[in-house]
Every structure is written in C-alpha cells, then in structure tokens.
Amino acid sequence: MAGIVLDGKKLARELEEDLRGRVEKIVEASGRVPILATVLVGNDPASATYVRMKGNACKRVGMESERVLLSEETTTEELVDVIEGLNANEDVHGILLQHPVPSQINERLAFDGISIAKDVDGVTTQGFGLMAMKEQAYGSATPAGIMRLLKHYNIPLEGKHAVVVGRSPILGKPMAMMLLNENCTVTICHSRTQDLPAHVAQADVLVGAVGRPEFIRGAWIKEGAVVIDAGYNPGPVGDIELSAIVDTCTAYTPVPGGVGPMTIATLMAQTVEAAEKSL
Predict the structure, then answer these.
(1) Residues 98, 118, 160, 204: which is the catalytic one?
(2) Hey, how many other C-beta atoms are within 10 angstroms of the C-beta on 121?
(3) Is position 151 annotated as part of the catalytic site?
(4) Which pLDDT score, from 0 to 100, does residue 235 have?
(5) Distance between CA 185 and CA 128 in Å, rounded?
(6) What is the Cα–Cα distance from 238 to 253, expressed in whole angstroms?
(7) From residue 55, how far is each of 21, 33, 131, 236 by CA, in Å?
(8) In this predicted model, what pLDDT tens digit does every residue of 46-87 receive, in sequence order?
(9) Catalytic residue (choose from 7, 118, 119, 121)
(10) Among 42, 41, 67, which residue's Cα sits nearest to residue 53?
(11) Catalytic residue among 54, 118, 160, 173
(12) Is the pLDDT at 176 greater than 80, yes or no?
C-alpha cells in the first residue's frame, strides 16, 4: 500500500487563503499593509529565484515585499547597518536575509542583527534558544513548515524515534529541537556520522536535510517510516531516494511539492503574525 502523500503545495494554498483574510483585517483596522523586507547580497541566481518566489507569495496574500539588493562586495558592517535600518523602520514587519551570503560576510553576525520581533524566518540565535525552551519565538521557516504539515495530517510524534540527517543552524538543529518538544526521541546525524544506514534504519520519522541528491538510500529506511525530504537538488530530486520507499512508508513528502511550499507559507504566516502584533 502506497504511503500517504504529505501534500505541502495543497496545504500552502489553504494557508494562503486564510492569510489573505487576516491581511485584509490588518489593512481595515490600521490602514497599513504588512511588509516583508527581503535582503539579497550578491548575484546568486538560485537565491534571486527564492527571493522572487517569496515576493510573489507576499502578493498572493495581499502583503508587500521590500526588496533590498546589495552588491557581492558588501561587508558584514554594511549589511548589519542595512538590517539595523530595517529594524528601525516601523513600516517593515518582517526581515528575511537570503541564505547564503558571500564568503566575506559573517552570516551569523548578520542574522543576529535582526530584531527578534521581526525575525520571521527564525534565524537568530535568540530565536533558536527561545524555541528550544518552548518559549514564544518564530521558528525557522522550513522546520516550522514541516511541523505544520505533520500536524495537518495527524502524524503521531509522541514517543517516536526521529532521525534528522543534517545539522544546519536553520534546518537540522531547529528541526531536532521541534521534534524533541513534541516528545520524540531524537537522533541527529551528519556528514561524520559513523554507520549512517544503521541510524536511519531506526527511524520512525526520518528527516533528510543534508543537501546531497538522494544521499539517503531507500534500502536504509524501515518499512512504515514517515519520510520527510527537506532537500531540493537539480532534477529535481530531494536528499532521499523517494522512489524506493513510496510503497513501503506510512507517509512521505514529495519533491517538489512537499516541504518547499510549506517553507514559504510559514514565512508568510509568521510575517502576518508579526504585523498583527505590531499593529
């Protein structure tokens, strides 16, 4: 029996419909339109595409996006100055710094320059700490979108063994903390993990977030697992060999159409929430 398709594209459309209504109420009550500022440093084509997609999503829900384009030669100090200006701008309700930035920039310092009230992409150290401690904060958009998707499909998490393959500060690490907060037992794996197939084989819930096409093989995954592929590589394919497990898993996210749309929808939702709090 084929696993349930966790359709992120469909859920994202439903969320956007709800967000349009909330934005209309904000505009009616305040006369102001919520604004997400997107900061892009350099000329990376993939990053430019992602920023454009997020701008289009803002339009779909009735928000505005303020695009800030900076040169490839931008310094950390110059970027932080721009972020501080956006923090002080009362018309801006959320700030997104597109990852990655050029190598000369201290990305962590730049991320942490974003005001916690406007950290709608969930990238600051403070936001991560608050989220991990189950305090109020905007979660990193991709793992928060995954959690929203799992909840929508009533996927049981309590007591399950979750294995997260990947440890990035904006995906793997916050994903692990969110699953832990839902009473999963969590194993975090990475590029230096010994005997990775043995760890993956224990997963009731598997999250692939390693950034390598089909790096996680279907033969490693036990029957009945819930499989979340957070990767997106040319093809397009994810980080997991999904074709090998669609008939043996309980549920899985397709690539494309699974995690990606939920990332953007969650960013929109958290920006609307920030605007509601501000206005």
Answers:
(1) 98
(2) 30
(3) no
(4) 85
(5) 19
(6) 10
(7) 18, 14, 26, 22
(8) 999 999 999 999 999 999 999 999 999 999 999 999 999 999
(9) 121
(10) 67
(11) 54
(12) yes
What domains sit in the chain, N to C, each tagged with a CATH number? Answer: 31-118 (3.40.50.10860), 141-260 (3.40.50.720)
Backbone angles phi, psi at 23, to 5 degrees: -65, -40
* DSSP reduced 3-state for 38: strand
Does the pTM surpass 0.85? The reply is yes
**Which tokens belong to 174?**
């916050």
Q: Which helix (DSSP H) or strand (DSSP E) does residue 251 occupy?
A: strand 251-252
Among this protein's residues, is 98 annotated catalytic? yes
* Whether residue 102 has a cis bond before it, omega within 30° of 0: no
Q: Which of 144, 142, 165 is nearest to 225 (CA)?
A: 165
The pair of structure tokens assigned to 260 is: 């990606």
Cα–Cα dist 188/169, whole Å: 12
Q: Is residue 119 annotated as a catalytic residue, yes or no?
A: no
